[in-house]
Structure formats: structure tokens, C-alpha cells
Write a structure and sequence with these properties.
The relative contact order is 0.18. The chain is globular and about 55 Å long. It contains 3 helices and 24 strands.
């Protein structure tokens, strides 16, 4: 995904504002409307709107199912959301600071108080001595989960466990694991007593590689491998195929759910089940009660052309409305 020319961006924005469908992103579908939900107007999105793009929200089919939405303050500094973990009244939005070179994209975390609708902490970078005395910093931050052990963050070649209480106040790193050559970490999921590392593939199916959580947490384990190794390794116990273009994954209602997207539209799919529309640029997802939380990168500065309507970075949708919807996003 790359920034287009200014002229093209203005043209696309005008088409969207006119209610025209563009690459699968159509106007709001009123069949998604639910009492107490959307469409949320631009002025009602929590937080400070970013200083780029139009002062308007982009149209897309599920917009009437959006119950609340948030901007991330660091969007003004090229923060790109990628992953999400929600626990209680707190949301952890994990992403990276945009840079052309992949090796220069530090993992970043915004902590959102959902009760008071405000950002309470932000981590611009975290690191640890992974390969030797010199510290290595987390890059990209494509997956996130949270449980009683802490906040798990996945990047391409490493898995991190952080202390939620230390975010924005002290060094949050509790542990870090290296991923073997089998892996290119893109999305993360916890399901029962297993941890799954998912790989993104643009064409063809990817896979979730599963590990026993107890093996990962065993003292002294520093590497996650596809095959059995020594006492410092945990090895895979199972593999599950995932759709192409996987962006996010979650376990809920006895199944795995996958999100796939581009900046103009998004899809939610149940494992071995039907697909439904999500939100443009939808990355990670999480079900919480009757709600479906989503993070989107469509409103991040690197992917917004001048004058283009925006998509909030964190959204809560009515899960029932989304799951009973339809599929229009085309790749």
C-alpha cells in the first residue's frame, strides 16, 4: 500500500463523498444499523483527529454498526495500528512508527481507557538484549494478546511478553523469545492452553503454528522452533491453515476468526465458514461480549491521500450486526 498522487487522492475522495463504491468500499448499508450504535459522526470520534485527510469519515457498508470509535494521538507522528488486545476497560493498540525501511519501524503501543475515552500511556519503543549484550528493539508489532501473564506482542522474528502496569512508566519487557526460520510472525492468538503464531501470505494460504503455552513459559526457554530442540526451546504442537492476506486472528465462540483487508475494504471470516464485511484497513479483531473491536490502518498517514476521508483507528462494532451481514470486499 503506497501513497498515491495528490490529484488521484482528491478524485477518490470526491467519489467516496458522493457515495460511490470504490474497489469494494461502498456507502453505509442501513441494514447494519443497531440501537445505540452508528453511524458515529466525525465529531463524536473520541480523541484528537489527525492533522491530515478530510474532516469527514469514509463511507463503508458496516459503518452503521459502529458503536464508538477512537483516534490515536500519535497518528500525527506516523503511528500505524496493527494489533489489538482488550481486557476489562482497557484497550492496547499495538503498531509501529512508519519508516520506509522495515528495520527502522519500532513497535509502539497506545493504552486507551475505554471508560473515560482517553489515552493513558504510550510506548514509543521497547528493547532487550535478545542476541547478546547489545539491545534489540521490537519492530513492526503485528500481533497482540493479553492474559494473566501480561501483554504478548508479536513481530516478524520475535515474541515479547510485557508488563501492562509498566507501559509508559518503566521498562515493560518481562521476556522475549526468538522465532525459528519457519516463522514470519504476522498475527497472534491465544486459545485455551495454546499460543498461535500466524504467518501472512499475499497469495496462497498461510498457517498458524501452535505452541503449548506451558512450554513457552517454561523457565529458560528462549526459542520457538518447528521441531524439537534442546532445553531452551519450545516446539510446535500443531498447525492450522489461514486465508491469504491474513491481518488479524482471534478465538471466540468456539472458533477461530480471521480478518483480511486493504485500505478500501475489509473482511471477517470464521474458520471454514462464511465471510462478512468488516471495516476498511481492518487489522486485528477481538470479540468482547456483544461487541467486536477492530483496529484499522486505513486512517494512518502513510495510507491517506490529501483530502481523503478517514477511518478511525480503533472501533467498536455491534458483533451481531456484522456477523449477520454480507460480503462485498473484492481483492
Amino acid at each position: 500500500m503506497r501513497r498515491g498522487t495528490a490529484l488521484l487522492g482528491v478524485a477518490v475522495a470526491l467519489l467516496l463523498l458522493a457515495g460511490c463504491a470504490a474497489s469494494g468500499a461502498g456507502p453505509a448499508d442501513q441494514s447494519y444499523r443497531r440501537p445505540g450504535c452508528g453511524p458515529v459522526p466525525f465529531a463524536s470520534v473520541h480523541g484528537v483527529a489527525p492533522p491530515y485527510g478530510a474532516r469527514a469519515l469514509a463511507p463503508y457498508p458496516t459503518r452503521p454498526a459502529v458503536c464508538e470509535a477512537y483516534w490515536i494521538r500519535q497518528a500525527a507522528h506516523r503511528f500505524v495500528p496493527q494489533a489489538l488486545a482488550v481486557r476489562g476497560e482497557t484497550a492496547y493498540v499495538v503498531g509501529y512508527r512508519w519508516a520506509h525501511a522495515l528495520a527502522r519501524r519500532p513497535c509502539q503501543i497506545a493504552v486507551i481507557d475505554l471508560r473515560h475515552h482517553r489515552e493513558t500511556a504510550f510506548v514509543g519503543r521497547f528493547q532487550a538484549p535478545v542476541y547478546g549484550p547489545a539491545p534489540t528493539f521490537c519492530r513492526h508489532g503485528g500481533g497482540a494478546e493479553i492474559d494473566g501473564h501480561g501483554l504478548w506482542v508479536l513481530e516478524t522474528k520475535r515474541l515479547w511478553l510485557l508488563s501492562p502496569a509498566r507501559l509508559g512508566h518503566a521498562d515493560p519487557v518481562l521476556r522475549v523469545w526468538r522465532l525459528g526460520r519457519w516463522a514470519k510472525g504476522s498475527a497472534l492468538v491465544l486459545r485455551g492452553d495454546r499460543l498461535g503464531v500466524a504467518r501472512y501470505r499475499k497469495h496462497g494460504r498461510g498457517a498458524v503454528t501452535w505452541f503449548a503455552l506451558a512450554d513457552v513459559l517454561r523457565p529458560g526457554v528462549t526459542d520457538l522452533l518447528a521441531r524439537p530442540g534442546g532445553p531452551t526451546t519450545a516446539h510446535q504442537v500443531a498447525r492450522t491453515t489461514v486465508p491469504p492476506r491474513l491481518q488479524g486472528i482471534t478465538a471466540a465462540h468456539g472458533a477461530l476468526w480471521f480478518s483480511t483487508s486493504r485500505t478500501s475494504c475489509g473482511t471477517l471470516r470464521r474458520h471454514a465458514g462464511r465471510r462478512v464485511d468488516l471495516v476498511p484497513g481492518g487489522e486485528d479483531v477481538q470479540f468482547v461480549g456483544r461487541s467486536l473491536w477492530v483496529v484499522s490502518e486505513a486512517g494512518a498517514e502513510p495510507y491517506v491521500d490529501p483530502g481523503e476521508p478517514l477511518v478511525p483507528m480503533l472501533l467498536r462494532l455491534d458483533a451481531n450486526a456484522v456477523l449477520h451481514g454480507h460480503h462485498t470486499c473484492a481483492y
